[in-house]
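Hey L., structure's done. Input below.
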Amino acid sequence: ISENRARVIARDQIGKLAGELNEERQAAMGVTGYTWRTVNDERVRDTHDDLDGEHFEWSDPPMGGGTTEKEAGHPGSGIQCRCYAEPDFSQILADL
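Output:
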């Protein structure tokens, strides 16, 4: 494959790994939900822009969160997705 294509694949896989690590870290802390955040630029998918600022549970990925509007996924799971999950600490703080 070309060097450019290899870079695209590597960037995509690193983004997916970062999203999965974020989910694992949050779950280990007891965080069950998050707020979807985008990078707010012109390259954000329309479906991800619609999810921006909305609350979701890690146990139930939102429809449209993947690569297409018919694919469920968490931030970072879609191809070349740069979105991220802002952790919701409210349940942890309520238990203190």
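The chain has a mean pLDDT of 95. The longest strand covers residues 33-37.

-- N.
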